[in-house]
Design goal:
The structure is a homotetramer. The first copy, chain A, is an alpha/beta fold. Chain A has one domain: Flavodoxin domain (Rossmann fold, 3-Layer(aba) Sandwich). Helix content of chain A is about 40%, strand content about 20%. Chain A contains 8 helices and 5 strands. Chain A has a 5-stranded parallel sheet, sandwiched between helices. The first copy, chain A, is globular, with a radius of gyration of 16 Å. The interface between B and C is medium-sized, with 15 and 15 residues. Chains A, B, C, D: This is Flavodoxin family protein.
Chain lengths: ~180, ~180, ~180, ~180
């Protein structure tokens, strides 16, 4: 079970990142920090004759990493009641690579295990639910298995350390991942 | 009542754009096509001593246009069960400019009227609901008034012309805007 | 295509009922007004040795009607951001009759077409969305096809007549049903 | 802080009840098992001249208990992706008693703390979210404070004992309630 975390925050050492690090203590995994890569917005060429054209950015490297792992933890603070732009940029380009014969996208994505780690303020246990539902629809659509998620209540740096229930959940995940 | 459409699609003349054009037939308005502007992802500096630093892109021009209008129509196809990256990039940077003394963001945003036009496939009347809820939370948070939305059922170019109910709604909006 | 409306309101001639009547003008159909039947809450006996026991109420007659039709229109005002108790009582007892050999519940429900007509106040286009999502989950679970829904904005008697878009939708449904 | 649990299950000693009992271990509280009371569906008389008329059932006793407590834990299994009929019957009648001068409903409800305990199968962490959103809307509407909720993954009797995270949360609540 090869584990990958995809970090969508624009800030290092944020609250979401803190959470996932607890879950992965002592566990081998790869980390992808999206803010370190140049990922352009998709240009929708699905319905043109020529199809998608190559994009001069870092996306294929990111995608290759994603496809090579079995268990993916999507880590994003809640920005404006949704995932960050960094992470949305990652998903939007799927539409291009689902149609790129060099990648066997659909087959490889199918069956991967998905986890979501997210944190936010403004009553995140309720206002964060549309985001969880969006992830649910995404995973359903491509056949990934939505294993679990955590919504942490934290805005300022370090605040997540007071969300004991979120931390408990990370311990439980750690236990599961160790098996 | 100064009207602005903010187009989040990566494709010109898409289905969402077709819809909003019906609603605005014969009505003076400004159009902002986000894909024509360079908008960088936010870097969250809320919690640093130095705060946000200037970003070398087109965002301030886009934001100035946004703030100068009273009725905003957000137009986005559904990409991966959410708004497009282009549009999410627009919202994420709000966090920066809410804290920029050169803009009176909070006061100016408060009370604006908001409409949402979105189109998609995969049973969009149900799977598009988390997106509508996200918009609802955003507008609540900043005190914009969520007037109405339309979810069109269309994926391929031109397909929206068969969604007669969505077109009816655009006619009704047109009627309202004319008053 | 045998059409059935299931009315969940506790009030005759309410706004939801007005809407569905527009959709069914000139169309043969059966009407089930739940408030005219005695339907007891379910007592969950799924996990007992003896299983469910017969209930002395009108449910089997209601269920038989439901199973005998192909296209079902669920009509309910929004009470406390959900369907009415009358309608929830109808669904809850499904759990009993899915397990009753006298009814071939699963086979017969599968493939039925479902429509939802609902009306409410308090910004129903947004606050009514959890109810639509609930219906979506119900129909998915039993394999009914969720064809369309309408959310009308109306509280006081007759108010629905001003919701021109909802009325337009009913006309469109009428057109579809006539085919 | 007077604590009340309102049990909406139709079964004694169910999974939701098990959870809440963990949260309340050693803590003084009152328990209301709705299935022990006769509660009729509401008949909507809001818009009639005569208004609501008295109902011959146990509702006023239930409501009086509810109003007399400060912290309310709503406990319901997920039936058909929503709260049970028993619990929906409880809420629907609020519409009557908000308008009954013998009760100062609005003032007394305002500010109460609300918790929700729910359990279900069929991927409840995602399919249970519309129910949580519905509770969120209800509490917002009457000014109750939505403190926290737990969704347990359990269908068969006793299954909840394997949902260690839900149990952890109950321990944390217990700790909070003890203060």
């Amino acid at each position: 079970m090869k584990i990958l975390t995809i970090l969508g925050s624009s800030r290092d050492n944020g609250n979401s990142e803190y959470l996932v690090n607890q879950a992965l203590e002592g566990i081998e995994h790869t980390q992808l920090r999206l803010s370190e890569y140049k990922i352009n917005p998709i240009t929708d060429m699905r319905h043109t004759e020529e199809g998608f054209s190559p994009v001069d950015d870092d996306y294929e490297s990111v995608l290759t990493d994603f496809l090579a792992h079995d268990l993916i933890i999507f880590v994003t603070p809640i920005y404006w009641f949704g995932m960050t732009s960094h992470m949305k940029l990652f998903f939007d380009r799927w539409s291009q690579y689902m149609r790129d014969d060099r990648f066997d996208f659909k087959m490889q994505v199918h069956g991967k295990k998905a986890y979501v780690v997210t944190t936010g303020g403004s009553n995140p246990y309720v206002t964060g639910l549309p985001l969880i539902q969006q992830f649910g629809h995404i995973f359903d659509f491509v056949g990934m298995s939505f294993e679990d998620y955590v919504i942490g209540n934290a805005v300022k740096p370090g605040e997540i350390k007071e969300d004991l229930l979120a931390l408990d959940k990370m311990k439980a995940w750690n236990h599961t991942f160790k098996k």
